[in-house]
Design a protein that fits this description.
alpha/beta; Rossmann fold
């Protein structure tokens, strides 16, 4: 099954021959190599690029073991560049090469090498990787399939594909599997034998069970405000083992570095500033999250919120959890009460405030969801996303309501 990923192909097209190394990052098995070696390669060939001007080296292939040293790799690539025309160099799993930034920078210096690299190592994925490329790196973050990609690949009814997606997620291999048992086995193997094992090995974690339990605690709190202390307390109640706030933070940093989870910070909407303390964490893939919990706690409302968060991130938004202070009458007294805006999504000068409401069965629930939005007081877009398949509409206060399928499938807000 060939799965089209036009958003990511377009990102590579826009960065073609820009004089920088295209650094393709993302969680293992999310389709980085497929994007580069199949989809983007096919696009280049369709533009008239000769196949011998596309140099593709899979460094995790044992046949290329001799190329895992910097100078032999550079010399080999240079020997294949037979003329002065542009050559497209694809280096898969570049972190296996010693001093790989030197190789990439040296290729760029040649002037006729357009370089693309992928990798899955913690050093490669670290936040200072672009510094290692001395300002000559351009990162393209790849994620598992979004619902629109998943639905386009399977082609079933929206409801049927949604049922599979909220259960098994969007890892590309899942889309080609027919039996639920095979999907469960695949996800279990990924999170236990690939991700957790990899994290333990890279970070010299001796007690893998501690990390696995912490991942379960984090997975069960998806969509809920939490803190390092709260996570540590929950961990202790589950295991009778004490874990310090500092250790929790260190382990969560490892999980974020491996792209398993992502933090959404709290943001004071009125004060326009970040608030320390509690944050929310969202899973990179809801299928992996469900697998970590042995497919228990499959509350569709929390999973839907996770999916909306990921969709916003793919569309290029920075996403925070909004907080707004409201005045309320409590027993005849005016008291200030903080209420939450699920997402404050920003991109440049654009801001969208979003509430995820799985269902709004009555006017009271609708008012509850609308009130934080209407209390913000600015003119930016305000949106409520519901599970129901409704006709999108906007009320007299400017708040727009739409169904989650319209939000996920229409491609824009």
């Amino acid at each position: 099954m060939q799965i089209a990923r036009p958003l990511y192909v377009d990102k590579l097209i826009k960065r073609r021959e820009n004089g920088m190394a295209k650094i393709i990052t993302g969680i293992r098995r999310c389709g980085k190599s497929y994007l580069l070696n199949v989809l983007y390669r096919e696009w280049l060939l369709a533009q008239g690029v000769d196949s011998d001007h596309i140099i593709n080296i899979a460094l995790d292939d044992i046949r290329n073991a001799r190329l895992r040293e910097a100078l032999p790799l550079f010399n080999y690539i240079e020997s294949r560049m037979a003329d002065k025309q542009m050559h497209y160099v694809f280096l898969d799993e570049i972190q296996l090469v010693s001093n790989f930034p030197e190789v990439v920078n040296s290729l760029i210096h040649l002037g006729n090498a357009d370089v693309y690299v992928t990798g899955s190592n913690s050093r490669f994925l670290s936040s200072d990787i672009l510094t290692e490329f001395r300002g000559r790196g351009d990162e393209v973050r790849v994620r598992p399939l979004m619902f629109s990609e998943f639905h386009a690949a399977l082609g079933n009814s929206v409801e049927e594909d949604w049922r599979d997606y909220v259960t098994f997620g969007g890892m590309p291999q899942i889309a080609s599997m027919q039996e639920d048992e095979l999907k469960i086995e695949y996800l279990n193997n990924l999170h236990r034998k690939v991700y957790l094992t990899d994290i333990c090995e890279r970070n010299s974690i001796r007690h893998s069970q501690t990390l696995e339990t912490l991942v379960e605690v984090l997975s069960s709190s998806v969509g809920s405000l939490t803190s390092f202390k709260k996570i540590a307390d929950t961990f202790s109640s589950k295991t009778n083992e004490r874990l310090t706030d500092k250790t929790v933070k260190k382990y969560i940093d490892y999980l974020e570095d491996a792209f398993l989870f992502e933090q959404a910070k709290r943001f004071d909407v009125k004060g326009r500033k970040y608030i320390g303390g509690n944050s929310k964490y969202y899973a990179e893939d809801v299928g992996l999250r469900n697998s970590i919990l042995n497919f228990r706690q499959q509350e569709e409302n929390h999973i839907m919120e996770n999916i909306v968060y990921l969709e916003l991130r793919v569309r290029g938004y920075n996403v925070d959890v909004g907080q707004i202070a409201l005045n309320e009458n409590v027993d005849g007294e005016r008291k200030r009460k903080s209420q939450e805006v699920d997402f404050v999504a920003s991109k440049g000068s654009e801001i969208i405030y979003i509430q995820c409401a799985f269902a709004m069965p009555d006017d009271r629930k609708r008012m509850q969801e609308e009130r934080p939005l209407t209390s913000i007081g600015d003119s930016f877009e305000k949106l409520i996303i519901v599970r129901n398949n409704i006709v999108p509409w906007r009320n007299e206060k400017g708040v727009r309501t739409m169904g989650v399928f319209d939000f996920l499938l229409q491609g824009s807000l």
